[in-house]
Model the fold of this input.
Amino acid sequence: MSRTLARLRDIFKDDLLVRTATGVTLTTCGEQLLQKLPPALAMIREILTG
Done:
């Protein structure tokens, strides 16, 4: 998981997740990706099952 997160951080040039006193939180970029990911995955799923 650490390597995958590191690769994503490199791709997006953002930390995506940061440690806080209560755990971890998403950066603004991470929040934006979280909102865009479900529709993108749905489109990919539709293409593959078409």
In short: The two ends are 31 Å apart (CA to CA).
